[in-house]
């Protein structure tokens, strides 16, 4: 509000702010007609966007100190806190404070994620990700590691060549096969996850005992295992469709079909396959 007033923005142009789970009105009659529904349908606000909804679906136990990684094209790694972290060190580390359900704060950093692999596969014309990951699992680990936050990897196109060049520039072994490049990507993402989780703990003063990985990347068993090894913490992977599930759970809570946040998260686990990865003691670079 203060910022808008300072900029001369008329706040009357905007609708009222609503919290996750607040009533937002009723479904429009024309939409109901299109869907063939003959009864009134309430519309409920959810957790603001996909990442917020995914974190709402993290199946953490009551009182569990957890970190989360929402995986996909990007990896969003962080903690759920009761208050924001507003230090200069936090700003310099590129962490954000985003409001979540029940006034919680998603304290997180955005990391280049499986975009690296997606772009390589697009460049190769490859669509067998299962076979590719199987081959990458047989490649010697940590032969080549790149900085997953390097801006050279942001743009689309020519990703295999850019990864190879980054390895050459840093004096490392240059991956040449598809399996070697894939292993390089995963070996690079795991320590990026570790750095984000460790910095989040240090900057917030909050210790974590387990990492929940949610989203499409949970299907990547090799990445989950490498992340557990890199972080030295157990990784619980699942659910895959966390954003959709969190959306449903917030709406269900608004209709009093599930309990408060801790109880709300409990139904997330039974309905979704979960897998736990214990760290092997081999920490990534």
Describe it:
By secondary structure, the protein is an alpha+beta fold. The chain folds into two domains: 12-44, no CATH class; 49-285, Nucleotidyltransferase, domain 5 (2-Layer Sandwich). 39% of the residues lie in helices and 16% in strands. It is built from eleven helices and nine strands. It has helices at residues 2-6, 29-35, 50-56, 88-92, 115-124, 129-137, 159-169, 178-204, 221-231, 242-254, 261-265, and strands at residues 23-26, 42-44, 66-71, 74-81, 96-99, 105-112, 210-215, 235-237, 275-277. Strands 5-6-4-3-7-8-9 form a seven-stranded mixed beta sheet, with helices on both faces. Strand 7 (210-215), helix 9 and strand 8 (235-237) form a beta-alpha-beta unit. Helix 3 crosses helix 10 (242-254). The longest helix has 27 residues, at 178-204. The protein is globular, with a radius of gyration of 21 Å. The chain starts with a helix and ends in an 8-residue tail after the last strand.
Question: Could you outline the blueprint of secondary structure elements for this entry?
Answer:
Blueprint: H1 2-6, E1 23-26, H2 29-35, E2 42-44, H3 50-56, E3 66-71, E4 74-81, H4 88-92, E5 96-99, E6 105-112, H5 115-124, H6 129-137, H7 159-169, H8 178-204, E7 210-215, H9 221-231, E8 235-237, H10 242-254, H11 261-265, E9 275-277
Parallel strand pairs: 3-7, 7-8
Antiparallel strand pairs: 1-2, 3-4, 4-6, 5-6, 8-9
Helix pairs in contact: 3-10, 5-8, 6-8, 8-9
């Amino acid at each position: 509000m203060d910022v808008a007033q300072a900029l001369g923005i008329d706040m009357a142009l905007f609708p009222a702010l609503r919290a996750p789970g607040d009533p937002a009105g009723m479904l429009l009659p024309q939409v109901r007609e299109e869907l063939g529904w003959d009864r009134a349908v309430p519309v409920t606000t959810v957790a603001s966007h996909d990442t917020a909804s995914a974190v709402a679906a993290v199946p953490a136990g009551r009182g569990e100190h957890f970190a989360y990684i929402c995986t996909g094209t990007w990896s969003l790694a962080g903690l759920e806190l009761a208050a924001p972290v507003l230090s200069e060190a936090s700003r310099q580390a590129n962490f954000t404070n985003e409001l979540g359900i029940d006034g919680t704060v998603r304290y997180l950093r955005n990391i280049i994620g499986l975009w690296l692999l997606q772009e390589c596969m697009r460049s190769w014309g490859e669509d067998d990700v299962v076979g590719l990951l199987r081959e990458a699992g047989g490649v010697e680990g940590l032969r080549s590691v790149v900085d997953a936050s390097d801006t050279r990897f942001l743009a689309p196109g020519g990703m295999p060549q850019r990864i190879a060049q980054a390895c050459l520039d840093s004096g490392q072994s240059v991956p040449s096969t598809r399996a070697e490049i894939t292993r390089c990507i995963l070996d690079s993402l795991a320590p990026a996850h570790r750095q984000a989780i460790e910095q989040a703990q240090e900057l917030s003063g909050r210790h974590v005992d387990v990492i929940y990985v949610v989203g499409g990347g949970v299907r990547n068993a090799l990445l989950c295992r490498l992340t557990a090894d890199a972080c030295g913490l157990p990784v619980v992977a699942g659910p895959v469709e966390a954003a959709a599930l969190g959306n449903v759970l917030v709406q269900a809570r608004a209709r009093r079909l599930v309990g408060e946040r801790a109880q709300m998260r409990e139904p997330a686990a039974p309905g979704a396959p979960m897998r736990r990865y214990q760290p092997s003691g081999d920490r990534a670079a």
